[in-house]
Amino acid sequence: MGEMAQRLSKQDWLIHGFDVLRSEGHTGLKADRMVKALGVSRGSFYWHFDDIKSFHAALIAAWRVQINEQVIAQLSQLPDAKDQIKALMVRVFTMSRPLERGIRIWAGVDPLVFQTLADVDGIRQSYAQALLQTIGLPPAIAQSRAQMMMWAYVGHALSTVDVDDPEACAADFTRILTTQVET
């Protein structure tokens, strides 16, 4: 048991936390339950985290980087704003819904998670709005369409219905979002 505990890294604990969040939700994010599930001593957990609150803070911070900042950095590598929008919509319709759903439910009971989620949603919407403005949409139209993108994202995250053809759905949604406004 001690040998295993030595090998668990902070990242291992965070990965396990994401797995728990996907399968059980935030109520499963308890040190004793996770220690037992991993078959390690409590010392393994407390080697990396002062307490369960610090684990929760590290988990939500890792989610923010992994889900938000890394995705935007990857999409920004695409040369064309329209391609970025389509790739973003493909991600919307193929994302890990249990994790996003778990974060959103957790945000309803934890102020830190709520604030992090609000920040992330704001960054996501600003990114989408900037892309839409890059293709020539006026700021007010880009803002409302970016809001629609967020609603699609949140709606899909909380939905129990799968998208049959994410590529086709993303292409159609992209066409609708990027259609120029008649003046």
UniProtKB/TrEMBL annotation:
InterPro entries for this protein: Homeodomain-like_sf (IPR009057)
Taxonomically, which superkingdom? Bacteria
Report the protein name in the record.
HTH tetR-type domain-containing protein
Q: Which organism is it from?
A: Ascidiaceihabitans donghaensis
